[in-house]
Design brief:
Length: 455
């Protein structure tokens, strides 16, 4: 547990010069700690110095012996637990903390609402944030969705609400993290190499509620009882389910019905979000908002007005009878399956599906039935191309494309009116792109360039 008072005045090591590392180093310096930042990759010194300021020393291009002249370390979530630097720090019994828990300890008394899960985190965070803002609350969106918690910690005021997207990496690194309200949306095989297996991945996700007590709320998908002993939770449990099982939130096929504090309330499903997976996301957001004291009417208005977040089943172009959808955030097969189910209701084999990128260890065979039902052609790209082609062989015609530009070219040679182009890769992006956002923006740019040339 990061104890600010106990560690005050001590020397801090920040490992990693990403967004969270830089923000955490600046926060620690502002709070009076002596800080040293160390980055494995070789970075431009002038640029990094400009970001950190003159008073924070750093090194890049490897970790020297300087890193051990510290009293505690803060680890970038992307660094694997078995990395040499982490092992060396542990051997010297130097405490290692996550950026999230360090930042949380530096803030005034705020309400932390944390959301994790294999899929749907960002959409749920944005939806919950919109509900809280509609209720007049001062809200900060932060965490794994791009804004470090450390950055928010510099401006947060007493009574503010922090809506945090929390990844399995961040949770695994945390020695103590206690959100006032948390949600566990779903668990599917993901990041298996980093966590060294599915069991460790589940264990990491479970840390979101591990330190909660009876004054806190935990919102959880009823399906996750197959993985978790929910009876052992110390917090107040609120379940949601699509299957009409005994839960505080269920979906009857038309409305979301919620039972909270002895009252039955009806909410509309999110008007502009496609798919049952987004109904689940909405149920989680509704329960969290109710637990945070939001007024029901403000929540209803938000569900009607809320628009999809970029790169998540984002319909960004419709031309000559063809619909183009950017779902670059689908970085695992389960997320792509949800996208296919959301679009297959229109019937027929109308979807041209782009798959591929960096493999994360999961099987693509879960896509087979839905592909046979609604996909006309698959276009494969990236490092996982051969694995995808082998596992999905025979489901429909598969076109090997290597990269996204070639896939887009081949699609325009094959599409017809009333068809859908779906970019839902089921893989990580790091083989050919900086991240999923970069990948999605490049895809949209390529499509728009084709139509610009046709004008």
């Amino acid at each position: 547990m990061f104890d600010k008072k106990h560690l005050e005045g001590k020397k801090a090591l920040v490992i990693g010069a990403g967004k969270s590392g830089i923000s955490c180093a600046k926060l620690l310096k502002r709070k009076g700690f002596a800080v040293f930042l160390s980055e494995e990759k070789k970075l431009e010194a002038a640029s990094l110095k400009k970001q950190l300021g003159r008073e924070i020393p750093f090194e890049t291009g490897g970790h020297s012996e300087k890193v051990f002249a510290c009293d505690f370390a803060v680890k970038s979530p992307g660094i694997k637990p078995k990395e040499r630097i982490i092992r060396a720090l542990k051997q010297r019994k130097i405490p290692i903390f996550s950026e999230v828990e360090v930042a949380a300890s530096m803030m005034p008394e705020t309400k932390i609402l944390a959301i994790t899960g294999s899929n749907g985190k960002t959409t749920t965070c944005f939806l919950l944030s919109a509900m809280l803002k509609a209720d007049g609350k001062r809200v900060h969106l932060c965490g794994n969705l791009g804004v470090p918690v450390s950055k928010v910690a510099m401006s947060a005021r007493k009574g503010d609400f922090l809506v945090m997207e929390i990844s399995s990496y961040q949770l695994a690194d945390s020695t103590y993290f206690k959100p006032h309200i948390c949600a566990l949306l779903n668990i599917e095989p993901d990041h298996l190499a980093h966590h060294q297996g599915f069991a460790n991945y589940i264990k990491a996700k479970s840390r979101i509620f591990k330190f909660q007590d009876k004054s806190n709320f935990c919102i959880i998908n009823r399906q996750l009882e197959k993985f978790l002993n929910t009876a052992a939770f110390r917090s107040k449990k609120l379940f949601f389910s699509l299957e009409k099982k005994k839960s505080e939130a269920i979906y009857d096929g038309k409305n979301i019905r919620v039972f909270f504090k002895g009252v039955s309330v009806k909410f509309p499903p999110p008007k502009n979000l496609k798919g049952l997976h987004n109904v689940e996301n909405a149920m989680a957001a509704i329960l969290m908002a109710l637990a945070a004291g939001c007024k029901k009417e403000n929540m209803r208005k938000t569900l009607i007005k809320f628009k999809p977040v970029e790169h998540r089943l984002e319909k960004f172009c419709e031309a000559h009878g063809v619909v183009f959808i950017n779902d670059s955030k689908s970085t695992n097969p389960t997320s792509t399956l949800a996208a296919l189910k959301a679009l297959s209701a229109k019937g027929g084999k109308k979807i041209h599906l782009i798959l591929g990128g960096r493999d994360k260890g999961a099987s693509y065979k879960i896509l087979l039935d839905e592909i046979r039902r609604c996909v006309k052609k698959i276009y494969t790209i990236g490092e996982a191309q051969r694995k995808i082609e082998n596992q999905l062989s025979g489901s429909c015609q598969i076109v090997s494309c290597t990269n996204l530009r070639k896939a887009v070219k081949r699609i325009f040679e094959n599409i017809s009116r009333n068809e859908i182009v779906l970019f839902s890769p089921a893989c990580a992006s790091f083989d050919q792109f900086r991240n999923f956002e970069h990948r999605g923006k490049i895809f949209k740019k390529m499509i728009k360039q084709v139509y610009a040339k046709k004008k």
